[in-house]
Design goal:
187 residues; globular; alpha+beta; six-stranded antiparallel sheet; 4 helices; 2 domains
Length: 187
Amino acid sequence: MRNAATLALLALACGCSPSGNGSIRTVAAIEVPLDTKADYDDLIRLMRRLADDNGMHADDASEKWAAFQRSLPADEPVDTRATIYLGVWRGSRDDDLEVSVSDMLHLQRAWVTFLQDGREDLPAAQREQALAAIKRRWPNAQSVPVLPSGGQPHAEDLRSTRQGYRIIASAAARYGLPATSPLLTRH
């Protein structure tokens, strides 16, 4: 549920609206550590290049989101906090959100989430090139598991492994995963 809310907030912050067909699925995700201003700038630049190279555009709403956060009461829940908020969109009327980048719910650890809705999606080859570029720039970036439903788990249910993040076994039922799922870790 948080993933849908985050997408909706991203769309509103960017001034765009997500596809109305209700079938948006995550197909790949990676967490990028944002330790320096250069990390932020490089990630935004990489997403802009991905957009430009594929006939899309990137809307960076990070500053708009920061201004919104400053307007919130001091006791507002921290899950609304973010330092980067960017969407890569297809279409002159922002028809499809192809990639979202946000560190909401995991500050300074941006999740770059590649999405599909079955219409005109970013080809797998371009997605893999972008993921490879991220890994070259941020060798400690970690893959985030994608649930069979096309959603993503909550950050607090993840543990780092040599293969990237895995979901802790005690959270399997929350996601409808069998105990034998390769998305799980016992550690």
